[in-house]
Amino acid sequence: MSTNDLRVGVVGAGMMGADHIKRINATIAGATVSAVVEPDEQRRAAALATAPGAEGYGRLEDALDADALDAVLIATPGKFHTPVLLPALAAGLPILCEKPLTQDPESSWEVLEAEQATGRRLIQVGFMRRFDPEYAALRELIAAGSAGDLLMLHCAHRNASVPDSYIQPMLINDSVVHEFDVVPWLAGGSIVNVEVRAGKRNSLTPDRLREPILVLMELDNGVIVDVEMNVSIQFGYQVATEAVFEKGVARIGQPGGLQLWQDGAFRIGEHADFTTRFATAYDRQVQAWVDAARQGGIDGPSAWDGYKVAVACQAGVKALESSGPIAVELPPTPDFYA
Ligand SMILES: NC(=O)c1ccc[n+]([C@@H]2O[C@H](COP(=O)([O-])OP(=O)(O)OC[C@H]3O[C@@H](n4cnc5c(N)ncnc54)[C@H](O)[C@@H]3O)[C@@H](O)[C@H]2O)c1
Ligand SMILES: O[C@H]1[C@H](O)[C@@H](O)[C@H](O)[C@@H](O)[C@H]1O
């Protein structure tokens, strides 16, 4: 650790938090994990074993009292983001908050108000797809217009399987949440409505879920988008987009692993889960945040972006339970985020 390093407190040392702790100490320049905040003693001890020099705490407030950190990375489950965001904001610290910002628009609005009260934009939301090189290339192509105007996006979001804790609304709040952020960022418009269609159920889907689903979005610039959301596809993890332009078609997220010709067949390796598919995106996201946090700011999706996604998710969950499109209605952008 260099004395100039940003001292990062990681809150929540489950799957994602443990991954970020390793990333910060092994890959990221200018930062060290100085505090691990995790109520579960076993998980805290396991994380501390990978973070030499870090201190362990059960609550963020205790780490703040000990002046143990300069910035906070939040990796608690979404329903426990607000109780961590509010004290971190009150302490005036830069924050990287894993998606979603919070579970609903009301609590996200409360967080926006708390951030505005600090007078600074301190929250970056972990919509890491914006840092994926392929998404960035597609966004540049769309903005350049060299293939003509963008007309449609076909998105596929496929998980091999999901844990027992994954319930029906999470198809939207935990998974399509990524498309609700990245699609407007790619296509340069706002979501005006969301519709969900559920067709034939996968017999391999856990009993508590009804999927795959098709999520349709209309943007205010006329672009329409479909997302196949699928969490029982078995073969691996695949997040792909096909963009249809006036004069061409572009694809991202195609399998890019080992190519193997054997036994009269041709195979290409595919990802098993998001940790490898988005490894570069997570690294770039955390490095951008550390660089900005060292200057006291953020460099990525803002709390306002998180709020807009919370409104889209609320419409998406309603659409899961009804038929036809549900409007996505946003209040005017507060001056602070304009
Ligand atoms: N960007 C991505 O691709 C991606 C992938 C997976 C998860 N996530 C997000 O990361 C976050 C964590 O997900 P996960 O799968 O690692 O969850 P997890 O359940 O594996 O781990 C969460 C940890 O937080 C701890 N925790 C709960 N409340 C706490 C509190 N108040 N203070 C400190 N620790 C607390 C729990 O004990 C647990 O160890 C979620 O917001 C999730 O949506 C993002
Ligand atoms: O929490 C995870 C994560 O956000 C992944 O990026 C997404 O593909 C999964 O569907 C979701 O369950």
UniProtKB/TrEMBL annotation:
The lineage of its organism: Bacteria, Bacillati, Actinomycetota, Actinomycetes, Mycobacteriales. Belongs to the Gfo/Idh/MocA family. Residues 6-126 form the Gfo/Idh/MocA-like oxidoreductase N-terminal domain. Keywords: NAD, Oxidoreductase. This is Inositol 2-dehydrogenase. InterPro entries: Gfo-Idh-MocA_inositol_DH, Gfo/Idh/MocA-like_OxRdtase_N, GFO_IDH_MocA-like_dom, MI/DCI_dehydrogenase, NAD(P)-bd_dom_sf. Its EC number is 1.1.1.18. The gene is iolG. GO terms for biological process: inositol catabolic process. Homotetramer. Residues 135-250 form the GFO/IDH/MocA-like oxidoreductase domain. Gene3D superfamilies: Dihydrodipicolinate Reductase, domain 2 (3.30.360.10), NAD(P)-binding Rossmann-like Domain (3.40.50.720). The keyword Transferase does not apply. Involved in the oxidation of myo-inositol (MI) to 2-keto-myo-inositol (2KMI or 2-inosose). The keyword Kinase does not apply. One of its GO terms (molecular function) is inositol 2-dehydrogenase (NAD+) activity. It catalyses: myo-inositol + NAD(+) = scyllo-inosose + NADH + H(+).
